[in-house]
Amino acid sequence: MDILVVGSGAREHALVTALKADKSVGRIICAPGNAGIAHEVETRDLDATNAQAIADLAAECAVDLVVIGPEVPLVAGAADSVRALGIACFGPSAAAAQLEGSKAFAKQVMDEAGVDTARARVCGVMDEVAQALDKFGAPHVVKDDGLAAGKGVVVTNDRDEALAHAQACLSRGVDARVVIEEYLDGPEVSLFGITDGTMIIPLEPAQDFKRAFDGDAGPNTGGMGAYSPLPWAPPTLVADVTERVLQPMIDTMRERGTPFVGLLYAGLALTARGTRVIEFNARFGDPETQVVLARLASPLGQVLLAAATGTLDALPPLAWREGAAVTVVIASRGYPENPVTGDLIEGLDAAGCVEGVTVLHAGTRATAAGIVTAGGRVLSITAQGESLAQARNRAYKAIDRISIEGAHHRSDIGLAAAR
Ligand code: AMP
Ligand code: GLY
Asked: Which residue has the least CA distance to atom 19 on ligand 1?
């Protein structure tokens, strides 16, 4: 089986690494990829936001399966374009990807499916925003309705800041909407389910660190690190969320005539009143994928193909490695606000020599002078260990060997859980 992986982040590097380990997978092409991915498999230029360009490349390369990493092409209909050419695709249709593309749509489907989430109001004008902020009280949660690359959500006690973010969201266009919701208090969990539109198989849960700095300080980011498993989580968490969240969502999407095929990512808050959905994404999470796939022992290509071809019921149960995985993101100077790129990255090989460590690339580019930074999130240093503590030690040992001018990372990924 030949596979095209679309995307250029550490998530795609993790996907490529796992697919390479599956003996049923032949040729792997990644587009556009990054400097690290290009080291391992063939890469091709691609405008990964262009649905038709993705389908055309899949046809040109005559692959058997396309795996789409990021949300933007999915929302733009890339999976529809690929399937229209008769090629299997792991990723939802544009209609189904609206679970991520519109927070208001996701709330509507959750309501139909009876899935617990934060109470919310969808607002089109500032008067409604002000009323909703008062109704739910502080801390205020203000979300851009549409895709915003992880930067659409503001959580704040400052009413003026909440109003200002709502105003910014609404001024994006005449149809712009903003979602105001109640604050959910409790630890967050990311749980992924792989689905063929009928059946959904949960993966192991992970925890993401969204804020830029240690102690959950600073602005929200795409994610600064993750770990798995979650030693503190209730043992029934995965079964409960599968039964009460993932399966009802998949059933409802199918009944609506827009089956969801691919990866459904539930972002959850474990509150005192029970588990609540914070958001859905229509794709693998980044950086959680780096730790979840590090622990997956089953052949990934076969799992994704079964989902894409409606045959998950014939798949043997997933197998998982013992131990734990931790990933720590190294971000460029100025991330998330104004990332500076073009800085030389030193120590990559030395870092990769640390036992249990895989250096996954995100925003990197090869130049004559060496590999340089080319994006906000630069590397995902991923380590496996017998315990969370060992995986953490290995990841941070590898990080000590890397130097990038002005780069930053969090030093507390998985720290509380390891203790
Ligand atoms: P989202 O893009 O919806 O995942 O939101 C990004 C982050 O904002 C989440 O991971 C949470 O940390 C935070 N967040 C979003 N919605 C809420 C909420 N209702 N209550 C508390 N925190 C939230
Ligand atoms: N780690 C958060 C996300 O992938 O959206």
From this structure: 183
Residue 145 — pLDDT band, cuts 50, 70, 90? confident
Q: Is 285 in the pocket of ligand 2 (CB under 6 A)?
A: yes
Q: Which residue has the higher pLDDT, 164 or 358?
A: 358
CA of 224 to the centre of ligand 2 (A): 10
Determine the distance from the C-alpha atom of residue 313 to the mean position of all C-alpha atoms in its chain, rounded to a whole number.
Answer: 25
**What is the pTM assigned to this prediction?**
0.94
Report CA(327)–ligand 1 centroid distance (Å): 21
Cα three-residue angle 342-348-349, rounded to 5 degrees: 145
Distance 60 CA to ligand 2 centre (A): 31
Give nearest CA residue, ligand 2 atom 4. Answer: 285
Highest mean pLDDT among 99-103, 126-130, 388-392: 388-392
Q: Which ligand is nearest to the CA of 186?
A: 1
Number of C-beta neighbours around residue 244 at 10 A: 17
Report strand pairing: 120-123 vs 178-181.
antiparallel
**Using one digit for the tens of pLDDT, what is the confidence trace for 83-114?**
999 999 999 999 999 999 998 899 999 999 99
Ordered alpha helix ranges (H), 256-372: 288-295, 300-308, 348-352
Residue 150 pLDDT > 70: no
What residues have CB less than 8 Å from 130, skipping those under 6 apart? 163
Q: Which domains does the chain have, with CATH numbers?
A: 3-90 (3.40.50.20), 121-181 (3.30.1490.20), 186-314 (3.30.470.20), 324-418 (3.90.600.10)
β-strand 188-195 against 200-202: which pairing, if any?
antiparallel
- 22-72 pLDDT tens trace: 999 999 999 999 999 999 999 999 999 999 999 999 999 999 999 999 999
Q: Is the CB of 208 under 6 A from ligand 2?
A: yes
pLDDT of residue 175: 85
Question: Residue 105 class from Cβ within 10 Å (0-12 exposed, 13-18 middle, 19+ buried)?
Answer: middle
Question: Of all protein residues, whose CA lies closest to atom 3 belonging to ligand 2?
Answer: 285
The preferred substitution site among 154, 221, 279, 283 for testing ligand 1, maximizing ligand atoms within 8 Å of CB, is 279
